[in-house]
């Protein structure tokens, strides 16, 4: 059997050795096609291998009628429409470890070049200027580096910065005090990091939550003269806000490897002398390119030959028998996890999943993985799936416990998920109603009956006349329309909760005025 493989971004020739060596692989390297040309020819291929430049859009995926696997020789999969791939049953694999070191080294190179104005000085010298006054830099020693996103690359950067005798403070939703202590760094909220740092470097994926994480408001709370690095993804920093912050002298320097729109030839940030930049070179070393290409090539060969893959991004792997019995619970389990990821705050330490009733007689591990996927997706993005969710939870240090029982408290089946964080315990329970789909039936100790979909608002309030009216009035002022509402309480006149389904996406900031009301204790936006 012969498989047609298309490589549409430049990959290391040494790295694709596993593909070249495997039998039956017809490899075509074509790195010059326009998106239209790619869409025309993709139907001929079984596998597509890319880096960050090829935009693997829904259109391309839908035209890939023979496509079985997409290999991303690198980390970020934001150039691949994962939903479209999953819908078409196309597995996406990436190479998450191969370029960590290179990206961390590039970040340090950018940090040092920026601090000592090396690119600017070099340019001046090339223009036949011997100018020693214009390029006075700052030392790194004893300065504070703020790291936003302490995953693989962020952690490597933190370790290197300590080698430069810098103090490091980091924020990551999965960073605990204990972990920070072990790494010899400080930890705090995003605000703490932004306020304390002389240099700030971001290392998160580009997600809904991280888009413009560094915006006008963020710049305002930073130290005067702060310097910024982005070697992660364009879009994490709001480029217009960065431009204004540099012009106003709030920000003294910026080192950028990635941009909101790539590639480009002209960029207004590059007109500022404080900005140094590289054209997305973080992973561009011989070592990293060989390593990531080897990793995806091995996965592509293995997958096309019916084997397992090491780095699946969207694979749903359950046996047929298990699938038949538990498949109806997949969506509910993911939504319970997603619900709790919004409801709970603090660092997640433990997840307890209680399976009751008939569902508990099955192997429920795929449901557990799906719950974890829902729970972790908010911070880790779309590369979390039911295959890698447990692995990621383990890696982060989250204890996961499955409990089974026959007691269902009146329901045929009941799934209860409980999350312990550094700030307390939160719980949500759901069931499948015969012929009526999924329902959330309990939030913490409060009974409710809520369809787990769309835009929800959880509000905890004092059970007294007028509370509901005040919430309605305030939401109306914000032009937020209520589509459905549920109230739950355990005792009359005590604490109670409202679960609202609303017509548009809001975040916690949009509903912050609710908690200013005397009888409202919590207001949390939940998007399912
Ligand atoms: N410039 C380049 O050529 C390269 C860029 N990258 C990019 O670097 C970034 C980091 O990559 P890795 O470290 O491998 O990923 P990773 O998945 O190991 O780490 C990302 C970390 O960001 C954290 N995070 C998520 N949301 C957050 C938030 N709102 N605030 C703070 N932290 C948050 C996650 O908890 C996770 O620990 C990615 O965007 C990746 O695409 C990676 C390699 C090369
Ligand atoms: O791995 C990543 O996320 C990167 O950004 C590297 O991108 P590249 O493969 O060099 O186009």
UniProtKB/TrEMBL annotation:
- Entries under Pfam families matching the protein: 2-Hacid_dh, 2-Hacid_dh_C, ACT, PGDH_inter
Q: Enzyme group, top EC level?
A: oxidoreductase
Q: Which domain of life is it from?
A: Bacteria
> Under the GO molecular function aspect, what terms does this record hold?
phosphoglycerate dehydrogenase activity
Q: Which reaction does it catalyse?
A: (2R)-3-phosphoglycerate + NAD(+) = 3-phosphooxypyruvate + NADH + H(+); (R)-2-hydroxyglutarate + NAD(+) = 2-oxoglutarate + NADH + H(+)
Name the UniProt key words of this record, in alphabetical order. Amino-acid biosynthesis, NAD, Oxidoreductase, Serine biosynthesis
Question: What PANTHER family would the database entry show?
Answer: D-ISOMER SPECIFIC 2-HYDROXYACID DEHYDROGENASE FAMILY PROTEIN (AFU_ORTHOLOGUE AFUA_6G10090)
Q: What is this protein called?
A: D-3-phosphoglycerate dehydrogenase
Record the organism: Sporosarcina siberiensis
């Amino acid at each position: 059997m012969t498989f047609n493989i298309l490589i549409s971004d430049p990959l290391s020739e040494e790295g694709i050795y596993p593909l070249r060596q495997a039998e039956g692989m017809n490899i075509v390297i074509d790195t010059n096609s326009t998106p239209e040309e790619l869409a025309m020819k993709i139907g001929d291929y079984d596998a597509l291998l890319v880096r960050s430049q090829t935009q693997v859009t829904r259109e391309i995926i839908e035209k890939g009628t023979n496509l079985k696997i997409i290999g991303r020789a690198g980390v970020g999969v934001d150039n691949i429409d994962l939903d479209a791939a999953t819908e078409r049953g196309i597995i996406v694999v990436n190479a998450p470890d191969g370029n960590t070191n290179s990206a961390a080294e590039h970040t340090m190179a950018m940090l040092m070049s920026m601090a000592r104005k090396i690119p600017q000085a070099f340019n001046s010298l090339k223009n036949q200027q011997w100018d020693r006054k214009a390029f006075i830099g700052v030392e790194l020693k004893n300065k504070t580096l703020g790291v936003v996103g302490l995953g693989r690359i962020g952690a490597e950067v933190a370790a290197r910065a300590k080698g430069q005798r810098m103090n490091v403070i980091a924020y990551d939703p999965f960073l605990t005090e204990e972990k920070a202590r072990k790494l010899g760094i400080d930890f705090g909220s995003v605000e703490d990091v932004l306020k304390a740092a002389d240099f700030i470097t971001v290392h998160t994926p580009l997600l809904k939550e991280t888009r413009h994480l560094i915006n006008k408001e963020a710049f305002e709370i930073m130290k005067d003269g702060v310097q910024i690095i982005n070697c992660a993804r364009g879009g994490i920093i709001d480029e217009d806000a960065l431009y204004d912050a540099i012009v106003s002298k709030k920000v003294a320097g910026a080192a950028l490897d990635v941009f909101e729109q790539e590639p480009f030839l002209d960029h207004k940030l590059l007109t500022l002398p404080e900005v140094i930049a590289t054209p997305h070179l973080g992973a561009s070393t011989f070592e990293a390119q060989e390593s990531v290409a080897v990793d995806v090539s091995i996965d592509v060969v293995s997958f096309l030959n019916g084997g397992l893959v090491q780095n699946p991004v969207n694979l749903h792997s359950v046996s047929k028998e298990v699938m038949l019995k538990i498949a109806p619970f997949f969506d509910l389990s993911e939504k319970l996890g997603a619900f709790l990821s919004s409801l709970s705050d603090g660092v997640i330490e433990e997840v307890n999943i209680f399976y009751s009733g008939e569902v508990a007689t099955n192997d429920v591990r795929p449901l557990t993985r799906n719950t974890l996927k829902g729970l972790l997706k908010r911070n880790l993005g779309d590369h979390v799936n039911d295959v890698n969710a447990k692995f990621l939870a383990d890696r982060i240090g989250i204890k996961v416990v499955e409990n089974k029982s026959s007691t269902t408290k009146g329901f045929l089946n009941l799934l209860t998920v409980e999350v312990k964080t550094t700030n307390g315990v939160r719980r949500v329970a759901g069931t499948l109603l015969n012929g009526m789909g999924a329902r959330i039936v309990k939030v913490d100790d409060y009974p409710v009956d809520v369809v787990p979909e769309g835009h929800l608002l959880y509000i905890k309030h004092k059970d007294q006349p007028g509370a509901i009216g005040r919430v309605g009035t305030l939401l109306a002022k914000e032009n937020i329309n209520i589509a459905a509402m549920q109230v739950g309480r355990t005792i009359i006149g005590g604490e109670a909760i409202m679960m609202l389904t609303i017509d548009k996406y809001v975040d916690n900031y949009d509903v912050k005025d609710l908690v200013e009301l005397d009888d409202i204790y919590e207001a949390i936006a939940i998007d399912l």
